Amino acid sequence: MTTSSEILGALRACSLPLEALAAFAAIAEGEGAPSFRTLYSGGTLLAADANVVIDPVTRLRMWTGSLDAFPPWPGATTDHDYSTAAGAVQFTRTTWQTEVIKLAGAATDFAPATQIANFWLFAQERFRSRSGGLDLLTDLKAGGAALKLINTYLGGTWPGGADVNFPARYAANLAALQTAPPPPPPPPPDIETITFSGRDNAGNAWSGTLSRTHSALIGAVAGAVGMAAATLSPPAATSPPAPIAALGEAQLRLPPAQASLGREAEVPPAPGTALADPGSTAANRLAADGPGVLTEFERCYALFTPPKRF
Question: Of the four, 73, 167, 201, 308, which is 20 to 30 A from 137 by CA?
Answer without folding.
Answer: 308
